[in-house]
Amino acid sequence: MQVVVTKHHGLGNDFLVLDLGQLQKLDQSKIDWPSVAKLWCDRQNGVGADGLLLLTRVADFKLTMQLLNQDGSRAEMSGNGIRCLAQAAFDLDGHQTAVSYTVATDAGDRVVDVEPVTHDEVRASVDMGRIENIDEPKNWSAIGSDPNRPVMHLSVGNPHAVVGVEDVSLVNLLEIGQKIPQVNLEIIEPGPESHAITMRVHERGAGITQACGTGACASAWAASKWGLVPASVREVLVHQPGGDASVRLNHPQPGHVTLIGPANFASRHNLELAL
Predict the structure, then answer these.
(1) What CATH number is associated with residue 15?
(2) Rounded to the nearest 10 degrees, how much is the dihedral formed by the CA atoms of 33, 39, 42, 46?
């Protein structure tokens, strides 16, 4: 069976979006979604992407998102992915003005405000929920981090380890990220602006990516707690290889963060779905 899949990216972190409304007459429980994700997301033999997003419509402005990483594993949440999913729904709905979607994810409901910028780009803000401390991941000691470095283990609906370094460009991120593949690893340095940080990420299930929305949230939160940005800063600019995102701290309520950034339509594909 052929289906229409759209490709989108948030700051270079790219996703394929499949509207499951195309499969209403099928028994979707029989579809091997991990294998589909691995095939379609393969950059040599497929379309290529960091992950596959499955979109389901519950009501006019209520959606569900299922996320499978490039390696076929299931992920709870993606800050860039949810913006891409919202853009796909926005385009399918034919909206021309700003709207808000409530998206059910494995990490809970998230409200996404979508505003068109150009024909192929939207700006979206997402209440990413509460930031919570979590235990350090198993095998953490294997990365050999200097015990004097600031480290914070956080959940933004999915697990993160944030490490403060002097220069993110000098770290062999792939090597250390592969030692703790069960979490997302961010390395950050302050600046260059006083209200900003610079971040690189090794993502669970995808490897090094151009950007990570939940990682930007975890990193901004850690940077504020460590004093890498002034205490007065309420919106942290997060520089990433793929571009910049903004994270509002303690917004829309204490303990929460709001992620703000673009989502861009890249391409449309007719793909074969094995049944």
Answers:
(1) 3.10.310.10
(2) -130
